Amino acid sequence: MGVRGYGASAKFGQCFLICVNIWFALLGVAMIVIGVFVRLNRGIADSKVIQMLRNATLGGLNLGDVIVALSAMVIVIGVFTMLVSADGGIGACFRKRGLLVVYIVILVIIMLIEIALFVVWCKFTYGTNTWLKEQFNNLFRYYNGIQGATDAFSEGWNLMFILLDCCGSSPISSMRNDFLALQTYWWTSPNRLPQDQIPYSCCKESNLNNFRFNRNVFCTQTAQPGTYRTRGCYEAFRKLLTDVSGGAIAVIVLLLVTQVLAIISAIILIRSIDADKRGSLDTTNSNVYRKGVHEIAMPDSKPR
Prior knowledge:
two-stranded antiparallel ribbon
């Protein structure tokens, strides 16, 4: 059907909807691939950090299972994205009014959810979050980082020390040592060398290959400046969230703008379809035969 009633705007809207939904379909495929890859890579789900986070709860759910479940959510969102993009793309390509109406309704619901999640994310990331700090302190009390310890808390914290370049829940300094202040299992353990102030995994030279067996008394016992990680893990985790938030906010804003343009394009296309339909049913001019939107002038009947 033609788009003569709305001219270039309807044509542009139709092309825009087709292109943007092709892009969303590819995004959905990518999300499904990533989600399946994470689900198949069981090492992520079975890691010691995840096991440790299973002991921290949020609203009755433990954080470890929530993180693991995110991979399944990514797959579900990917499938949903493909279905929505198929609805909008087919509706725009074949000018199906019903599909376009459903597409608009779904986009409006998605936008409301995105805005709500955006507000919650900003509050969680940039606001004062005493709950998260308390969870870090509570989990840290169970740390028993004797070299060779394989429990979830010790392994999880040791990996966090190395991967996030941090030590303790709060920053370690001459004025505060979380291992002592929070009375961790490591500090009170009879197996800890009495001279040790921090475990070797807090030393800057430690890595995933040597933290189980190496030692450096200048770091672990005397804590000489420059030999140990001074940043607290809570601070490091919050910084990680803040860094991720910059990209997340940019993506959400881009999605919202794209969705608004898609809704406007769909509305213009629907009005064009309605205008064409009304035009094809116009019988007021007896000298015009309408077939679809094509107007064929009929010869006048004049007596000779």
